[in-house]
Amino acid sequence: MGRWAIAVHGGAGVDPNLPLERQEEAKQLLTRCLNLGMSALRSNVSAIDVVERVVRELETDPLFNSGRGSALTEKGTVEMEASIMDGTKRRCGAVSGLTTVKNPVSLARLVMDKSPHSYIGFSGAEAFARQQGVEVVDNEYFITPDNVGMLKLAKEANTILFDYRIPNSGTCGSGVGTPLQMNGLPISVYAPETVGCVVVDREGRCAAATSTGGLMNKMTGRIGDSPLIGAGTYACNLCGVSCTGEGEAIIRSTLAREVAAVMEYKNLKLHDAVDFVIKHRLDEGKAGLIAVSNTGEVACGFNCNGMFRACATEDGFMEVAIWE
User: Fold this and answer.
1) How does pLDDT run across 24-58, given as a tens digit for each residue?
2) What are the catalytic residues (predicted)?
3) Binding site annotation covers 130?
């Protein structure tokens, strides 16, 4: 028997002026989700079941950008996406463009388990959800007053806002006043807040899941890194990885897969692999990731000023943090 480990994230890139009460709310949610996962692992629940269970909890709480509380499109609607991967046989499922599915990560799991495909999007994904009998709600369920206000700010600024929870203070994830670009175009941004979970269980099975509402004021139909296997999510026999941050940079670098690749081809340990890809594979992009290895290690890495994260291992290590 091996050792279990778990990590949870609520997004990389945090406003340095984030109010203390918001910080405490985030830590409480992360702690609750971490305890949920730890309890399941102690009861020998499989890694794939644990990541789904934890991400469902994150999707249900409106604090972070997934499920209820998702960022709004330019039309004021919600289009959610998620993916899940079982490292044992590299099985995976992903969904995009969801507007009524209460828990996108569970539909991604059904794509993996109950369909002949790996990725289903938009009207096809919605039809599959109804075929499978998953819980659906009106799109209004996902929309919060905070997000309506942030969309208004984004439209007034004629830009994309990553952080949908707190008013734009002119800061961004790369430092106060530092402009960021996405595919060469300037944007105002400081906190991309995808959620994710990675787990290795006592059998050495690794799994990962990621879920998001995407960018505030994004173009309808935009797909980010979260549902893309190898970019936002990856799991294999060596590790499980979930990424968060500037989606276009994560896609270009196939960031999640890179962690596994350098472990396999450069023979790096988990911590060294995470450090290597954060430093050398993001170019000018801003992002973070959480990862576990099949030997019970856990690691987090980011190249911005903070990442909402929590992690624990069977040997007693536990951390809930935002800043470096």
Assistant:
1) 999 999 999 999 999 999 999 999 999 999 999 99
2) 194
3) no
